[in-house]
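Sequence dictates fold. Below is an illustrative record:

_____
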Amino acid sequence: MLNRRHLRVKVLQSLYAYHQSEKKDIKVYEKSLIQSVDKVQEMYIWMLSLINEVAQYADTDATAMSNKFLPTEADLKPNLKILGNTFITSLNKNKEYLSHLKKYKVIWDFDPELTKSLFATLKASDDYKTYLEKTDDTIHSDKDIIKFIFKKVILKSSIAEQVFEDKFIYWPVDKDVLQALIAKTFKNFAYEEPEKNKLAEVVVNWDEDREFIINLFQQAVRYDETFQEMIATKTQNWEPDRIAMMDTLLMKLALAEFLHFPSVPVKVTINEYLEISKEFSTPKSNSFINGILDKILAELKADNKIKKTGRGLIE
């Protein structure tokens, strides 16, 4: 699921794109920001669909085997147990999933070799052979083979990796979120009755989170010059071109939260952007950003400019 840190990253990505562009149309980037969240939902549905495609390919493979010039007895009597897999059956009856398939126009026809190669990997695995031989199946054991398809077949496939990288620009960043969503789906699908099984929620409280990311982006843009001046006064010994742009953007977002998000505690803000810097900036960025923010924060507190209410009062 997309938590507040993930959402802050989405804002950072949009803010970076905004500053890199010659056209400073804030509405365009606000729209792009919202779309970047929806892209996570789309990626999630495409992945569920691919898992389903791999399982369903057992039927296609069985037909191909039976049509061989000299089919064996095993070719003529394939084990199609996976077609009745509880998780797959429930997924294909899930109204929300089916609705999203239509919304995102999910069809794998553009790369037929992908599903074929993934199923070949599955078919050759000991885990799949053990699954086919098992007779005392439960919903839990049925999910085990689906987890195997996701973790050990799809995520290990360089071909699948390339397909998702090509289709989703932020795949390297959102991949961890996707894995959490799929894991949550496996947990949610715990009932024999398909109508009781629910997809994972990409964003739990979208109205609140949507307001948060749009407001954060707007404040960072609106007060860009002010924040730049605040940072400049604390980095006088640094040549401007030696300060990573990402570091500057991270500090501007932190300042926006210090001054314009009264319900967000200062420590939460600092910790979040320091963690984000570890992934998106230089090895030394963490200590640099922390040092500059501490100096600015001390000054803001001395001038009584930090106004926190509610949970924001807790530090």
Observations:
- The chain is about 70% helix and 0% strand.
- The two ends are 26 Å apart (CA to CA).
- The longest helix spans residues 26-66.
